Amino acid sequence: MATANPPVSQTKSFSTIFLIELWERFGYYGMQAVMVVYMIEKLGFSDSKANLTWGAFTALVYAAPAIGGWVGDKILGSRRTMTMGAIILAIGYLLLSVPSEDMYFLYWALGVIVVGNGFFKANSGNLVRKIYEGDDSKIDAAFTIYYMAVNIGSTASILLTPWIKVHWGWLSAFAVCCGGLLVGLVNYFFMRRTLSRIGSPPDDQPIHKGKLAIVLGVGFATTFVVAMVLQNQAVAKACIWLAGIIVLAIFGYLIAKVDRSERAGLLAALVLTAQTLLFFIFYQQMSTSLTLFGVRNVDPNFSIFGVHLFTWIPEQFQALNPIWIMVASPILAWAYTALGKRGKDLPIAGKFALGFVVVAIGFFIYGISGNFAVNGIVSSWFMVWGYGFYSLGELFVSALGLAMIARYVPARMGGFMMGAYYVATGLSQYMGSVIANFASVPEDMKDPVQSLPLYTDLFNKLGFLAVGGTLLAIVLLPLMKRLSESHHGSSAPVKDAAAAEAAE
């Protein structure tokens, strides 16, 4: 006799999360593509103020899922919290598109986006983890493809929003970001049945209206707190460091208190999270120093052998990152799966080390571009190849950071640990903005010949920093091997029992 609700395939469940993640990232990266330049050109911010404001915002954006993951795990359920986050994000982007001369209104709109992202981000990743739980090679492949969803959405919006900004104005560009979230929500509504068996325990219970009201009330109040924090750089810095210290302390407490069988996995996750923190310093350059370098010192015309092909708006150079990732993601996902079947998959710590190597190459390409400049302007092809190597490194480190949490962290802590991972990335992105300010161009410096050495010097230093990350990852390989073997040895009986139970 057929069941009323037959099981849904993993592929269909994954496709639902893939699509809503795609549209959520469409909104976020569309805003990211133009926000720093908007602050400088439209609002009159200095380079330093724009970089640090954006850095504080992104740090809070990435820190917020630590709470959102807990709300999904314990209070409302992962599916509900993710959906609620998408709705709040749409409201935030809509607020950015409202004409207002009040600077506080901008900060408040950014605060709404912080809260919405907090509810959405940890829970979408945690749902992917639950779909493929127990199969390491599939988890690596799934998160690599999931990461490709990020880049499909971001490619479209990074190309679109600068073009809309030029033709219809800044506010119209932000309105398009809101539209992307609305499309994602409509699509999710029609596909939501595919996740009916995936989620955290509260998803299986009737929604508690009182708890929902409290969560929404706290979220609304938090938007104003974030707005005040963004206005004060000293307060922003203190809050970001405090959040990092708190999460690290909780991490230490959990490592001390969990069963010995789970401790090795948590220690491995902590080590890899620390390496991820270093990586996101490089990632933050995309929306800060690399974007401003593209605006001021890169020829937007693409030519081959003197034949003009096309011209990009400078902010669109950011799209090179997701374009390269979409090219490489399916190849790496296939390679991970094929090697996993043969028992020859490269350990995740080894993938991190390889990632830092290619990131270093990417930044050295940006650095040497100054040697080929004409009147302070470099060829757009340096951006193409620099982003190519950087993006491959991102796939080895950032895409697998989520898979690392899924692999090493006990299921009952999944939502919180996803959130803790994002706190670490937020902290490092703020550090990335601080580093980007080493190439801050004074307001009276308009000549590209003068600004060029500021950028190329920064990029060369970042290249050497990535070399340091490579050496650190290599030194840690033996430790990671021992921790991984200990983790898998202790978790094998649990997995076997789960498999036997599923077979029955």
UniProtKB/TrEMBL annotation:
<protein>
    <submittedName>
        <fullName>Oligopeptide:H+ symporter</fullName>
    </submittedName>
</protein>
<feature type="transmembrane region" description="Helical">
    <location>
        <begin position="170"/>
        <end position="191"/>
    </location>
</feature>
<feature type="transmembrane region" description="Helical">
    <location>
        <begin position="388"/>
        <end position="409"/>
    </location>
</feature>
<feature type="transmembrane region" description="Helical">
    <location>
        <begin position="52"/>
        <end position="72"/>
    </location>
</feature>
<keyword id="KW-0653">Protein transport</keyword>
<dbReference type="InterPro" id="IPR005279">
    <property type="entry name" value="Dipep/tripep_permease"/>
</dbReference>
<feature type="transmembrane region" description="Helical">
    <location>
        <begin position="462"/>
        <end position="480"/>
    </location>
</feature>
<keyword id="KW-0472">Membrane</keyword>
<keyword id="KW-1003">Cell membrane</keyword>
<keyword id="KW-0571">Peptide transport</keyword>
<keyword id="KW-0813">Transport</keyword>
<dbReference type="InterPro" id="IPR036259">
    <property type="entry name" value="MFS_trans_sf"/>
</dbReference>
<keyword id="KW-1133">Transmembrane helix</keyword>
<feature type="transmembrane region" description="Helical">
    <location>
        <begin position="263"/>
        <end position="283"/>
    </location>
</feature>
<feature type="transmembrane region" description="Helical">
    <location>
        <begin position="319"/>
        <end position="336"/>
    </location>
</feature>
<keyword id="KW-0812">Transmembrane</keyword>
<feature type="transmembrane region" description="Helical">
    <location>
        <begin position="141"/>
        <end position="164"/>
    </location>
</feature>
<feature type="transmembrane region" description="Helical">
    <location>
        <begin position="348"/>
        <end position="368"/>
    </location>
</feature>
<dbReference type="Pfam" id="PF00854">
    <property type="entry name" value="PTR2"/>
</dbReference>
<feature type="transmembrane region" description="Helical">
    <location>
        <begin position="235"/>
        <end position="256"/>
    </location>
</feature>
<feature type="transmembrane region" description="Helical">
    <location>
        <begin position="81"/>
        <end position="98"/>
    </location>
</feature>
<feature type="transmembrane region" description="Helical">
    <location>
        <begin position="104"/>
        <end position="120"/>
    </location>
</feature>
<feature type="transmembrane region" description="Helical">
    <location>
        <begin position="421"/>
        <end position="442"/>
    </location>
</feature>
<dbReference type="InterPro" id="IPR000109">
    <property type="entry name" value="POT_fam"/>
</dbReference>
<feature type="transmembrane region" description="Helical">
    <location>
        <begin position="212"/>
        <end position="229"/>
    </location>
</feature>
<dbReference type="InterPro" id="IPR050171">
    <property type="entry name" value="MFS_Transporters"/>
</dbReference>
